[in-house]
């Protein structure tokens, strides 16, 4: 992984989150405290329902904790309300989800361009696609790409923003083992070459060997 001082870039301090499901209160997270170093590749393991996605959504500013706080580069991400969270997501976060969410009427290049138009100093879209091994597929549409290639377009779209945090929620969940392994190798390459702090959540223990750090969640 990238050779640099592992100063903390992201801190989670006493975060708890509950949801009301019917008449039942479900505790997704309970008093979670973690620190993440700059440039680390961290794998979050845990069974379904262990709170992995909830934690990632809170870190990414898609959800807010009931108690506790998330600090990014010394600033509470929730301190400035929804406008502050929107700016944080736009400038600092790249998301990769299980499903690719590509626009079918746009080419791979155009799908990546959509994101680069929203941020300052983006990576050129063709460069982002070359980084993930799709330099020869930039003009192909999603329907012309295999599942693993579509996921790599989604990764290129996420990293073209030059985010400081790359958050991956089950990025190989819809792929077979061999294709999933290739996608994970692409994420690892991005982490190494760009120094992007990367969090990958999964229930697949076999990928933990690629990580700088492995965290296992058990029922929040």
From TrEMBL:
Keyword 4Fe-4S attributed: no
Pfam families: ABC_tran (PF00005)
Presence of the UniProt keyword Isomerase in the record: no
MF GO annotations: ATP binding; ATP hydrolysis activity; transmembrane transporter activity
InterPro entries hit by this protein: AAA+_ATPase, ABC_transporter-like_ATP-bd, ABC_transporter-like_CS, ABC_transpr_LolD-like, MacB-like_ATP-bd, P-loop_NTPase
Record keywords, A-Z: ATP-binding, Nucleotide-binding, Transport
Lineage top rank: taxon: Bacteria
Positions of the ABC transporter domain: 10-220
One GO CC term, this protein: plasma membrane
Protein name per Swiss-Prot or TrEMBL: ABC transporter ATP-binding protein
Native species: Chlorobaculum parvum
């Amino acid at each position: 992984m990238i050779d640099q001082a592992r100063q903390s870039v992201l801190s989670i301090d006493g975060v708890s989150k509950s949801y009301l499901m019917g008449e039942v209160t479900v505790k997704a997270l309970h008093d979670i405290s973690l620190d993440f170093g700059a440039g680390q590749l961290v794998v979050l393991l845990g069974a379904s329902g262990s709170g992995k996605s909830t934690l990632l959504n809170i870190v990414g500013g898609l959800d807010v904790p009931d108690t506790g706080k998330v600090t990014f580069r010394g600033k509470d991400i929730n301190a400035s309300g929804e406008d502050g969270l929107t700016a944080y997501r736009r400038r600092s976060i790249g998301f990769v989800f299980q499903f690719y969410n590509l626009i079918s009427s746009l080419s791979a290049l155009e799908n990546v361009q959509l994101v680069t138009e929203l941020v300052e100093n983006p990576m050129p879209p063709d460069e982002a696609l070359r980084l993930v091994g799709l330099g020869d597929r930039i003009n192909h549409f999603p329907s012309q790409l295999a599942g693993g290639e579509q996921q790599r377009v989604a990764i290129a779209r996420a990293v073209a923003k030059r985010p400081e945090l790359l958050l991956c929620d089950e990025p190989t969940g819809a792929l077979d083992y061999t294709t999933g392994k290739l996608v994970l190798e692409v994420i690892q390459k991005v982490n190494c070459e760009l120094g992007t702090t990367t969090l990958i959540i999964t229930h697949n223990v076999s990928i933990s060997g690629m990580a700088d750090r492995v965290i296992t969640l058990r029922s929040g």
